[in-house]
Amino acid sequence: DAKTTQPNSMESNEEEPVHLPCNHSTISGTDYIHWYRQLPSQGPEYVIHGLTSNVNNRMASLAIAEDRKSSTLILHRATLRDAAVYYCILRDVNGNKLVFGAGTILRVKS
Amino acid sequence: GAGVSQSPSNKVTEKGKDVELRCDPISGHTALYWYRQSLGQGLEFLIYFQGNSAPDKSGLPSDRFSAERTGGSVSTLTIQRTQQEDSAVYLCASSLGRTRGNEQFFGPGTRLTVL
Lengths: 110, 115
What we know:
- The complex is a heterodimer.
- Chain A has strands spanning 9-13, 18-23, 33-38, 45-50, 55-56, 61-64, 70-75, 84-90, 104-109.
- By secondary structure, chain A is mainly β.
- In chain A, the strands form 2 sheets. Chain A has a 5-stranded mixed β-sheet, with no helix packed on it. In chain A, strands 2-7-6-5 form a 4-stranded antiparallel β-sheet, with no helix packed on it.
- By secondary structure, chain B is an all-beta fold.
- In chain B, the strands form 2 sheets. In chain B, strands 2, 4, 5, 6, 9, 10 and 11 form a 7-stranded mixed β-sheet that branches.
- Chain B contains no helices and 11 strands.
- Classes of the chains: A mainly beta, B mainly beta.
- Chain A binds chain B through residues 30-32, 34, 36, 38, 42-46, 49, 87, 91, 94-102, and chain B through 4, 31, 33, 35, 42-45, 48, 50, 55-56, 59, 91, 93, 98-101, 103-109.
């Protein structure tokens, strides 16, 4: 499976935008980029996914580099509830399992 | 609608005993996954079901681990002769299918402690 690299941790102030980076230089042409997050004491939760074009949903935006070797998850206005571990995942070529890395611990300060 | 449910939420067992963990996926979801999360290993894939078949069992750590799914719905993960290193949170997820775009919905997990 192609791997991703994320910073170990990031900190943000409440009500400010947060940009969470992810590098995936070995991504293949048919790998989707998925983001999940895990709040304390809960199972992971889907955030967003994309292939080539930037994507927006009610939770976040996903900006994908033109060469697809990196992407950025954007939370437009961080809240305390957004404090979680954020995982950037390249979906397995067979389209089933998710391969989780260490993720980025996001801390949000009030 | 109801999400993925798992039972029990917590299980404490003695080393050497067998345990069964149950997962009820979202109704209509044909794909079901088991993962586990331990302090030392992070989140790791165990097994994937499509319907009642398990085309990918590559993550099961040993032959003490097995899983089945019946009626295309409920799944049970069984750990025989539990060891202390089996202590972890066992997470179940389901999705509509196996295509790359389908998001996985996770349950709250079962925390297993082996004494």
